[in-house]
């Protein structure tokens, strides 16, 4: 009996020493630029709903698209556990839309970050190829304080007009991902890609990263850009790609109402849980 108890105690000791699996909840959220005149859906009316959604879902890290400075300020004010990094796409400081990365400081530590432009001159504010707007990608190197593991998180917004800009911009992101990650840390890429899942510009990306829409055990197929409820169908344009994680346990197209507002944006947030 003593021998059996010793073996059992040893087994529990080994299990206790095993690293615990700590899922990472991530989100991509096109907030719809606050300078747009969306009448009853304008930012001043839905900003509390957007902040309530973030507090309710509490992602460890998330990327926003289209956010201008006063939207970022409001989210940080209402959600004080978060910090963010990113720059305005027009001047590399504050002007224009930000592709910022937010992280929960109680869970995530920022180690390094930067922004580059999706263009032929990525290290300075610039318009790329046939794009209608300047486009950027913001990258971060983060540490998960729960298990001390490091990972990269990249957030972007591809052009809505220029086909070459989307293809070349995403190719630049794929190239930069390879350059920034020689040690093979886990990697997450979020964004509004402005393309449907069958677009050929995603081919090279799919060769190095997995699409959470395809690997989650169950997804709610539907549009992510809904134009304030006017768009139907099953195809999405907002994505979460990942590598270096064992699996995606869930992916949610968040259609829940907050603060009595039917929509937090003209895009539904997309949330994935990665292990």
Structure description:
With 275 residues, this protein is an alpha+beta fold. The two termini are 39 Å apart. It has a single domain (20-274), classed as Deoxyribonuclease I, Chain A (4-Layer Sandwich). Strands 3-4-2-1-12-11 form a six-stranded mixed β-sheet. Strands 5-6-7-8-10-9 form a six-stranded mixed β-sheet. It contains six helices and twelve strands. Helices cover 25% and strands 27% of the residues. The longest helix is centred in the middle third of the chain and has 18 residues, at 163-180. Residues 1-19 have low confidence and may be disordered. It has helices at residues 2-17, 43-57, 69-78, 163-180, 203-208, 212-215; strands spanning 24-30, 61-65, 82-85, 101-104, 108-117, 136-144, 149-157, 187-192, 210-211, 238-243, 248-253, 270-274. Helix 2 packs across helix 3 (69-78). Strand 1, helix 2 and strand 2 form a beta-alpha-beta unit.
